[in-house]
Write a structure and sequence with these properties.
The protein is of the alpha/beta class. Helices cover 43% and strands 20% of the residues. It has 3 domains: 214 residues, Isopropylmalate Dehydrogenase (3-Layer(aba) Sandwich), CATH 3.40.718; 125 residues, Isopropylmalate Dehydrogenase; 39 residues, no CATH class. Bound molecules: NADP nicotinamide-adenine-dinucleotide phosphate (NAP) and magnesium ion.
């Protein structure tokens, strides 16, 4: 049996253990059942190095063109990686480059399972993060101030008008300076993406910033968000979606004792930090799904976790591994289901639902990798190997087709 996928998916390959699992998932869980064409980009760190990172830029543009992408985790090189792989330089984060081109919002949602209780006992439903994926500290300029002098913030109008100039600090000695920015256009599309997601999922929408301290920058986010909410009031009401704005500190304090079932819209940095906190609180990084939603519609699906380097070195030595493939499988089902929705092929969407159910039932039956054995209730004594888990999912999937 083979289900035909009408249009191509942009496939972005990556590094280390995530790359090993990527190919296992394709061979064992996808190729036997779906007939799909992919537009393949190899973002292995060596390929990025050979192409002076142009391959990353091309991959991002391909997602914009085809509308659906699926990405494997990739190494963001640091000095150690430059040494390890003999790279020309420490190339930028591929995810940062792709986000910069597609703009958009990253939604991260945990997969909840009956036998994996969240560490935070009040959490009964997923807490989804909508992270603004443009600007702020991720697109900054910084100066290490060598000694006494004046640090200034200057805006020079393009129309030749008078520059706006503010003194940040009169330095008496060494220090640091940073300039960050955002754009009204990007903030508006962030707000719209969150509103659309909340409507689709029928969950309350929260947004938080630090507008008490940052009375211009953060207040601008707050006001734009509110304007978009006002503009979509009727749609939101029809879907029963409420909007709640609060200070970021208050939001953090509330989230930790909330039952969940909300979309929490976060500025770029807050979303980066809080999504890691939520992933570990919900059980494992390998249960966190991630999708980048571009304002014009394209979507890129991936696992929230990285390349799982330590497991890769064990794998290279021939040692058995117990790496969880759940989020990678869900990246593929997310991408395929989106493709199927756009193409009007419900049989593709249906296959994705069955595969996701097979994964969930496998774990709930007590077959799971080591990361979950640690937090499972009731306890399980024997973790599955990387391959053993994927094969168990395949057996279960077979019984559903
Ligand atoms: P990581 O690869 O997510 O791994 C952190 C730890 O989390 C692992 O050592 C492992 O713990 C556990 N873990 C993560 N995924 C797992 C899975 N699927 N199954 C079981 N355990 C899992 O993060 P990292 O070690 O900080 O980064 C490694 C590399 O990934 C870096 O080069 C980084 O640049 C890159 N990275 C890429 C992305 C991306 O492309 N989206 C995201 C993050 C990091 P134990 O070792 O204790 O078993
Ligand atoms: Mg983070």
């Amino acid at each position: 049996m083979s289900i035909k996928v009408k249009n191509p998916i942009v496939e972005i390959d990556g590094d280390e253990m995530a790359r090993i699992i990527w190919h296992m998932v394709k061979e064992r869980l996808l190729h036997p059942y779906v007939d799909m064409e992919t537009i393949y980009y190899d973002l292995h760190v060596k390929r990025r190095d050979e192409t002076d990172d142009q391959i990353t830029v091309e991959a991002a543009h391909a997602i914009a063109q085809y509308g659906v992408g699926c990405k494997c985790a990739t190494i963001t090189p640091n000095e150690a990686r430059v040494q390890e792989y003999g790279l020309k330089k420490a190339w930028r984060s591929p995810n940062g480059t792709i986000r910069g081109i597609l703009d958009g919002t990253v939604f991260r949602a945990p997969i909840m399972l009956k036998n994996i209780p969240p560490t935070v006992r009040t959490w009964k439903k997923p807490i989804i993060i909508g992270r603004h994926a443009y600007g702020d500290v991720y697109k900054n300029q910084e100066i290490q101030v060598p000694g006494p002098g004046r640090g200034e913030l200057v805006f020079t109008p393009a129309d030749g008008g008078e520059p706006i100039r503010l003194t940040i600090q009169e330095f008496a000695g060494p220090g640091v300076l940073q300039g960050i920015h955002n754009t009204e256009k990007s903030i508006r599309s962030f707000a719209r993406a969150c509103i659309q997601y909340a409507i689709a999922q029928r969950v309350p929408l929260w947004f938080a910033a630090k507008d008490t301290i940052s009375k211009t920058y953060h207040a601008f986010f707050r006001d734009i968000f509110q304007e978009e909410v006002n503009a979509h009031q009727a749609e939101m009401e029809a879907a029963g979606v409420t909007y709640f704005y609060t200070l970021i500190d208050d939001a953090v304090a509330r989230v930790i004792r909330h039952e969940g079932g909300i979309l929490w819209a976060c500025t770029n940095y807050d979303g980066d930090v809080m999504s890691d906190m939520l992933a570990s609180g919900f059980g494992s990084l390998a249960l966190m799904t991630s999708v980048l939603v571009s304002p014009d519609g394209p979507m890129e699906f991936e696992a929230a976790h990285g390349t799982v380097q330590r497991h890769y070195y064990a794998h290279l030595k021939g040692e058995p591994t117990s790496t969880n493939s759940t989020a990678i499988i869900f990246a593929w089902t997310g991408a395929l289901a989106r493709r199927g929705t756009l193409d009007g092929t419900p049989e593709v969407v249906d296959f994705c639902k069955r595969l996701e159910a097979a994964v969930i039932e496998t774990i709930e039956s007590g077959m799971m990798t080591k990361d979950l054995v640690r937090v499972c209730d009731p306890p399980v004594d024997q973790p599955a190997t990387t391959e053993g888990f994927i094969d168990a999912v395949r057996n279960r999937l077979e019984s559903k087709l």
